[in-house]
């Protein structure tokens, strides 16, 4: 899976801007992302605070590392 170029704090910042009144199109243009990316992030991280996003990323990274370890031992 491709690693993203945005950190969890950057994603949280981008998702917070429309709540402050900035149009979504402008937020996407400034961040250099497509609107579909914005809506995907919003669907995935809806209602999460930056600390919760960090915990989610840590959990997913740990799951990925465990799966890679299992696969490398089988081969």
Automatic annotation (TrEMBL):
InterPro entries noted in UniProt: Homeodomain-like_sf, Transposase_8, Transposase_8_domain
GO MF term list: DNA binding; transposase activity
Organism lineage: Bacteria, Pseudomonadati, Pseudomonadota, Alphaproteobacteria, Hyphomicrobiales
Pfam annotation, one family: HTH_Tnp_1
Domain of life according to the entry: Bacteria
Name of the protein in its database record: Putative transposase
GO biological process: DNA transposition
Originating species: Paenochrobactrum gallinarii
